[in-house]
Amino acid sequence: MNSKSVLGVLGTAAATVVLVAGCSGSSGTATGTSATPSAAATSSPASSAAHNAADTAFVQGMIPHHTQAVQMSDMAAQHASNEQVKQLATRIQQAQGPEIEQMRGFLAAWGEPETGPAGPSGSMGGMDHGGMGGSTSMPMPQGMGGMMTDQQMQQLDQANGAAFDRMFLQMMTEHHNGAIQMAQTELAQGQNTDAKILAQKIIHDQQAEITEMKQLLTTL
């Protein structure tokens, strides 16, 4: 009788241990599998959506800035006579076209429009061309430098040969300098990591192209 009681107690204890172990394992597994995807799902969108007004202004301004550079490069394919100028224009198109789409993706992820509110009272206003005169038909973010006026774009489109080559290089150098200033402002004031990485790339790439264009000008 005593041995049966002992066996009964041992059997009950063993069953309890198995039950506790099973609950512990299932609980730990559930916690581990649910926490990991949750962290992964929330961290990436949160980091990509985190931005401030400087990020928005940078991207909203750089999209039309890049768009004009692509338009100028399109003209080079038709009017340039120097093969190196044509090759440079092609590289500018190939770099800035995808960057425009990347920046549109930023704005979509942030829930921001491609253009800001127009007018002096908003973040968008008449473009200050730094003494170049005239204004564009499209409202531009204040502080966006290097943009060509409509008249300058018409002059470039009407030029041909060596005259076009020189005008293109001079205008694109000024255009690049403006983009670099905008990118430097983004690095100093922006918050979004992806936008700041793009700003640094713009500075690096366009500074190298400025050096190349200044060298080309000495050969024309």
What does the model show?
The chain is mostly helical and 220 residues long. It has 2 domains: 1-48; 50-217, Ferritin, core subunit, four-helix bundle (Ferritin), CATH 1.20.1260.10. Helices cover 75% and strands 2% of the residues. The chain is built from 6 helices and 2 strands. It has a two-stranded antiparallel sheet with strand order 1-2. Helix 3 (83-110) packs antiparallel against helix 6 (193-217) and helix 5 (161-189) runs antiparallel to helix 6. The termini are far apart. Residues 2-44 and 118-142 have low confidence and may be disordered.
Report the CATH architecture of the largest domain. Up-down Bundle
Order of helices and strands: HHHEEHHH
Strands, count? 2
Number of helices: 6
User: What structural class is derived from the secondary structure elements?
Assistant: mainly alpha
CATH superfamily of the largest domain: Ferritin, core subunit, four-helix bundle
Q: Helical amount among residues, as a percent range? A: over 70%
Strand residue content: under 5%
Distance between the termini: 113 Å
CATH topology of the largest domain: Ferritin
Instruction: Please state the overall shape, judged from the principal axes of the Cα atoms.
Output: elongated
Poorly predicted tracts of residues: 2-44, 118-142
From the alpha carbons, calculate the radius of gyration and give it in angstroms: 30 Å
